[in-house]
């Protein structure tokens, strides 16, 4: 029998207590994600390879759901904002829910047949990610972007497709805020 318990989540820092896993991604881990490879190498060499995002999670053996937070630092690489790698789920029948707690972001979504959607991420917004839509979160603000996520433990993350091919569109710094541009067709 699994005993119920509370997990404390800090809306500002994204800390999860108790947590069962955590990983961090620095600029050097995201060489294939950002378009401007020279800017990546400059940041690694000159800016001390900054932290881009971290994921903290709570997963309990025998539970069908797991959840956690992702905290994306504010920052840019070239003309792109700090962002996550982006992924499809291995299980094509399983979606996810994001609940933004702090900061200001964009959720970039791409369907399997190439449709692109963007959703605003701001405190209090709950984003429904349907099954078989790839999703990437982008911090377009000046503060950390913190969001809570929850999905089925069987969903699984498939990063290969997006890391190898890239998403169809990119979000870059425009004259009056974030701008969506074509990355590949
Ligand atoms: Mn996901």
Can you give me a brief rundown of this structure?
By secondary structure, the chain is mainly beta. The protein is built from two helices and 17 strands. The chain has helices at 37-46, 160-165, and strands spanning 8-9, 16-17, 21-26, 51-58, 65-72, 76-77, 80-81, 88-89, 96-102, 105-111, 116-121, 126-129, 133-139, 145-152, 157-158, 169-174, 177-182.
* Helix/strand structural class: mainly beta
> Rg, please?
16 Å
From the coordinates shown, what is the CATH architecture?
Sandwich
Mean pLDDT: 97
Q: Major beta sheet, specifics?
A: 6 strands, antiparallel
How far is it from the N-terminal to the C-terminal residue, by CA? 50 Å
Give the count of helical stretches: 2
**Approximately how much helix is present in the residues?**
under 10%
Describe this structure in words.
This protein has 185 residues and is mainly beta. The chain contains two helices and 17 strands. It has helices at 37-46, 160-165, and strands spanning 8-9, 16-17, 21-26, 51-58, 65-72, 76-77, 80-81, 88-89, 96-102, 105-111, 116-121, 126-129, 133-139, 145-152, 157-158, 169-174, 177-182. Strands 3-4-5-14-9-12 form a six-stranded antiparallel β-sheet, with no helix packed on it. A three-stranded antiparallel β-sheet has the order 11-10-13, with no helix packed on it. It is globular, with a radius of gyration of 16 Å. The N and C termini lie far apart (50 Å). The mean pLDDT is 97. The chain binds manganese (II) ion. Manganese (II) ion (MN) binds at residues 87, 89, 96, 135, 151, 157.
């Amino acid at each position: 029998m699994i005993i119920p318990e509370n997990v404390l989540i800090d809306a500002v820092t994204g800390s999860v207590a108790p947590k069962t896993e955590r990983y961090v991604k620095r600029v050097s881990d995201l060489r294939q994600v950002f378009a401007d490879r020279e800017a990546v190498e400059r940041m690694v060499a000159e800016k001390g390879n900054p932290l881009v995002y971290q994921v903290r999670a709570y997963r309990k053996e025998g539970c069908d759901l797991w959840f956690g937070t992702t905290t994306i630092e504010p920052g840019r690489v070239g003309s792109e904002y700090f962002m996550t790698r982006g992924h499809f789920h291995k299980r094509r029948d399983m979606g996810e829910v994001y609940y933004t707690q702090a900061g200001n972001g964009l959720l970039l979504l791409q369907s399997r047949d190439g449709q692109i959607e963007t959703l605003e991420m701001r405190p209090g917004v709950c984003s429904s990610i349907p099954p078989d839509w790839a999703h990437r979160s982008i911090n377009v603000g000046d503060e950390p972007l913190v969001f809570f996520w929850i999905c089925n433990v069987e969903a699984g993350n498939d990063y290969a497709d997006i890391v190898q091919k890239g998403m169809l569109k990119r979000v870059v710094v425009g004259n009056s805020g974030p701008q969506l541009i074509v990355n590949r067709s």
